[in-house]
Predict the structure.
Amino acid sequence: MSARQPEALVLSIGEELLQGRIADSNASELARELLTLGFSVRRFLTVGDAPGDLQRALQELDGSVAVMVSSGGLGPTADDRVRAEAAAYAGAELVAVPGAVEELTQLFLRNLSEQAPKHFLAQGFVPAGARPIGNASGTAWAFALDLPRGTRYLALPGPPAEMRASLHAGGGAAALAERSAGSAGLAFRAFHTAGAPESVVEARIRELLADSQNPRYGITANARGVTISALAFGVEGAAPPGQLLDEAGAVLRERLGELLWGSDGETLPQVVVHALRDRKETVTLAESCTGGRIASALTSVPGCSQVLSGAWICYSNESKIRELGVAPELLARHGAVSEEVAIAMAAGARARAGADWAISATGIAGPEGGSPEKPVGLVWLGVSGPAGDWAVRRQQWTRAGRASVMQQSVRDALDCLRRELSGHPRLPPRL
């Protein structure tokens, strides 16, 4: 039996969240981070930023959990009341973080050539007795404060990049981890796959899911692929959670084979960029139905300039002929959405760029434009490389709409190259 884990609560702050004007991506990300730190998340709660909203929430929740983490309400505007209301609840004054006001003054002067207003400088204050938490991606200092009834409260900025900077490099996670020390521990890992739908992935690991105890497995799917999650518990007399996950990873690699491409925070574009970099090879792209999304995925990875030589977005037949050298008779005979044209697009891009590899995508993203012979969701992906040129047909799921067809095609295009670079079997067609 696993030991009881310390409990946590995730608090999201802002009227824009309550009204649905902004999606709350921070809450799920913070829940995952708390899980890896050894906490069991008890509740998600969203409160507004009207006067007194946070103070009433702290009064109600203090003492009910070991830690509480909020995001939002630390900026320079009138509705950013977190620091003041946390201080009021704790009976503390607001004090300046050493050096913070001076730094903010210089930052404002350098960027706007004028003196910083008081509300901007307020971002450098935290409640007395709180631990200041740095924010390398923004201007608002976060803080960790022990509340009167024992809950440790970590207040983080709302913008996701600033939230992450404060949580990790700023020291927020370390402040939380102090409250999970001594627990039996949890360990969590996510394993990512591509190339097969959820039903196929599930069939390969069905017994693991059915007998899921320790680790406990789960499976989710979206347009980027299928992910298997594994959560291991610390149990007296058993292997540590981290070792259990290492063993789980070995089992999943054996069962999933070429479908498995990464784990945890890895992304498929990262895997492709790093593989090309290790081989000192380059890739170019010829995109039609994906509209530049493959290039966007690759350029999201730092260091992609070492491997991405360039890209073409050739949506019309004329641009395919002019920019990529696709023969007009191929288009006339087979149509733009065809194996032959996908191969010609990739080969033409590779020849023009002088790259080691080229990937092409041509298809019907919908919701209109399909036919019985070429339905909406049909995509041909072409590959040109040292071993020759080929293409694969993929019939994408269309119920989630045009954007999903495009995202699935980006995933499959990158998976085509990933498999070529790693020596795995080629991506199979989906009819």
About this structure: The first strand starts at residue 7 and ends at 13.
